[in-house]
Amino acid sequence: MRYPAKRTFTLAAANLLGHASNVTGSTWAIATAGAADGLSHHVTIRNDSVTDHSLKTIVLVGLDANGAALTETLAAPGTSATVTSTKAFMALTSATPSATIGADTFDIGWAATGHTPWVDLSLKMPATVGVYLVSGSCNFDVRHTLDTEPTEDSVVFGQTALAGATASIDGSYVAPVAAVRVDVNSHTAGVITFVVLQGE
Length: 200
Fold this sequence. Notes:
Blueprint: E1 5-10, E2 15-24, E3 40-47, E4 57-63, E5 69-75, E6 82-89, E7 91-97, E8 105-115, E9 119-120, E10 127-145, E11 157-158, E12 169-173, E13 179-198
Antiparallel strand pairs: 1-13, 2-8, 3-6, 3-8, 4-5, 4-7, 8-13, 9-13, 10-11, 10-12, 10-13
């Protein structure tokens, strides 16, 4: 997105079966890559069995919100438990266990939490950012990074005035930052519009 940048997102609800349902054995097929709402989402993996698989690991491979390659290794869920990734995936292409789960089954889905793609900024001018809550309810933060080629692994910062918002809000960056995004902390049928204004 360039200046002015404006995009509306109809936020997807959490879906424990979104990526795949009842995967089993040592090879898991991903049925649906992502939530298709324009956000990257945290991945959830639910253990449908009473077997404790927490000593195993699962390697997630996919793409981040801006299309960069992304991987994460997380501990498999314990007895009838659910684990959630730290990183947020726009698309999940594979989930590979370190050892078979036998006849037990897992469900792979996405959480309601996640974030928009990064919007790159010129480092020469201030920027104004706004988030309009179009409908529903939503708790969100506007975050920024100093990384000029931002990815999911970039160090992210926030501003107190733009954190934990539950209504339409705007704010300004006077000192230069490299990119901005919206982090969705929770929502119910939320629709938001993200706007970034900056001079050429």
